[in-house]
Amino acid sequence: MQRPLISVSGLSKYYLENMPVLKDINFSIDSGEFVAIMGHSGSGKSTLMNILGCLDTATSGHYYLEGRDTAALGADELALLRNRLIGFVFQGFNLLPRSSILDNIGLPLLYAGKSKAERREKALFMLDRVGLAEFGERRPNQLSGGQQQRVAIARALVTAPKLILADEPTGNLDTQTGEDIMKIFQVLNEKHNITIILVTHEADIAAHAKRLIRVVDGRIASDQAP
Amino acid sequence: MIIGALLGEGWAAMRANRLRTSLTMLGMVFGVGAVIMMLAIGQGAQLMVNESVASMGSNLFIVLSGSTSSGGLRQGSGTVPTLTLADAQALSELPEIAAVAPTLPNNAQLIYASNNWSTQVSGTTPAYLDVREWPVISGEAFSDSDVRSATRVLLMGQTVARNLFGNENPVGKMVRVKNSPFLVLGVLASKGQSLDGRDQDDTVFVPITTAQRQLFGNQFPGMVRFVMVKAKSAEVMDRAEHDMNELLRTRHRIHPGQEDDFSVRNLTAVAQAAAGTTKAMATMLGAIASVSLLVGGIGIMNIMLVSVTERTREIGIRMAIGARRRDILLQFLFEAVMISLAGSLIGVVVGIACAYFFSRFNDALVVVTLSSVLLAFGVAVAVGVFFGFYPARKAANLKPIEALRFQ
Q: What is the 3-state secondary structure (H, E, C) of B332-361?
């Protein structure tokens, strides 16, 4: 049997003692899945997302990414995982405001040690794929929210990651634009076989996924097809 | 490859905040500028002192006549003419000694046509010019035969020549000294100021015998006020001093335990002490100026700390997409170093320009040396690294999720 891309067992997260944010979480996600993690604000879904993205660490339990126990990895190894394996798409886009669109997209390649020419070439290619080829030299604040989110997706994809983690990617967008963004994720998942984990509190956004994990008060309440 | 890219990121951040970057740089500009200017002033002063020291002649002693003491009242050196031409002759025969010049100075009024000038007139021998390393630039020096026959000839310094003759050439002219006519044989090269600020060119030399017999005829024939002595090399100075003391004690029949009636002074040592003082002063100027470099460095640290706090979210984004701690550290460190580097470069230019203007308006000698520029520059860059490191490390040690959530 194929090893799951993500495997979580007995995972808990405490910010304060006796105040668990996540309690005894167990699940696994295979390569190529499109999973939505749903919950109300404060349910712990974002914390779970941050742990899956190696941005935060669990207090107890295990999180295996590609079979590796992330608790055993140092800061630099986690940075390497984020760089090579994971692409992030955030609610607030999180583009660098003072850098051009192309520089923003090429930034993960910079930390991968790629040359300026290669960064530029791949950034241009990704920008074209999200349909914004003519905006490369602009700054993020010169683009609309939907365009910025597409730039963020291009940045997430530029290192050809296996996993995209999207944290409320449509939260700051109007319904139509949100729909467009979700279509991009669907294409990425279906045509390019990229595993996508989507955190949202909106049921119609979660409906784009093939699997739905509901988080309530730090526990998994249900795990099924939507 | 990644180093170059991180340099680029630091450069972009510097450009993004131009006003702040230039104000931070200004601290380094003033720091480096002050150090370079102070070192230039200090080294200029040192050079002036060293020139005075060199103008005195090297490996030099002065042997002074003794002091009288009558009824417990003691007079100063040279008040009793205890040294004679014969003593000078004996000193010149010591193996360590290269040349001796017995000297008898006094003041006299010189008259040429309608001009007159009062100056120091010293009787001495031709060896004096060798001892003091003092060339004649026009005409010629008097000779030993002039000394033997006590002729009325003289050599004059530049100041005397200018005051008596103006633009005329003094050589071959007759001047009156104490109402006796003297032939001007030659004019000496300019020596400039002595260590104590006297004008060394305001002087006249005549043969010692002429001085003794015709100008300052005194009650002790053959006496001299002091003898200038040049040793053969710097290495024999100590032995020469000892031998001269022994010789003169023997010649003057001074018994052990009795006080000398002469004194031997090592002028070169005195000059070296003066040079040492100036050097200490120059070092102190540099040290004071480097405080401003330090202040500039603290300015960098201050701004970098603000910058790190302000850009916490940016740091979080960079970490999320794969920046390692080292990458963040280097980016901020490079930024600090580039600020100090650019500030230092401007500081070097400003420092040299200020030193130049200082010398223009203060008539002081300033010397900008490559080593002082490199020193100021090197220290400034080191200061940038040192004060840039703490903020950079603070940035690198942020937790990715906390940095990312920072509002």
A: HHHHHHHHHHHHHHHHHHHHHHHHHHHHHH
Identity of the residue in B323, B324, B404 whose CB atom sits nearest the CB atom of A55: B404
Where does residue B362 rank: exposed (0-12), middle (13-18), buried (19+ CB within 10 A)? Answer: exposed
Q: Name residues whose C-beta falls within 8 Å of residue B306's C-beta, 6 or more positions apart in sequence.
A: none
**Which residue has 């290269």 as its token pair?**
B98
What are φ and ψ of residue A110, in 5° steps? -60, -45
* Positions of chain B with pLDDT under 70: 1, 67-80, 217-220
Q: Which residues have a Cβ under 8 Å from the Cβ of A64 and sit 6 or more positions away?
A: A4, A6, A7, A8, A9, A70
Name which of A45, A53, A35, A36 is nearest A13 in CA terms: A45
Which of A76, A77, A96 to substitute to test the interface with B, most B CBs within 10 Å?
A96
C-alpha closest to that of B69 among B260, B253, B246, B220? B260
Distance between CA atoms of residues B79 and B64, nearest Å: 10
Structure tokens at B356: 């130049």
Residues with Cβ within 8 Å of B284's Cβ and at least 6 positions away in sequence, in order, are none
pLDDT attached to residue B79: 58
What order do you get walking across the sheet with A6-16 strand by strand? A19-29, A6-16, A60-65, A68-69
Which candidate in A46, A111, A159, A168 is best for mutational testing of the B interface (most B CBs within 10 A)?
Answer: A111
> pTM of the predicted model, to two decimals?
0.73
What pLDDT sits at residue B59?
86
What pLDDT was estimated at residue B358? 87
Dist. CA B275–CA B267, nearest whole Å? 12
> Can you say how many angstroms the Cα of residue B401 is from the centroid of all Cα atoms in its chain?
62
Let me know: does A111 contact B322? Beta carbons within 8 Å. yes
Where would I find the H helices in chain A? Answer: 45-52, 75-84, 101-111, 116-129, 145-157, 175-192, 203-206
> In A, which residues are within 8 Å of B16 by CB distance?
98
Render pLDDT for A57-77 as a digit per residue (tens, 0 to 9). Answer: 999 999 999 999 999 999 999
| Contact of B121 with B185, CB cutoff 8 Å | no
Looking at residues A78-98, what average pLDDT do you find?
A: 93
Mean pLDDT for the stretch of residues A50-54: 94
Residue-level pLDDT at B75: 62
Chain A residues closer than 8 Å to B401 by CB = 50, 55-56
- The ipTM of this complex is 0.94
List of chain B residues whose C-beta atoms are within 8 Å of the C-beta of residue A95: 317
pLDDT computed for residue A81 by the predictor: 93
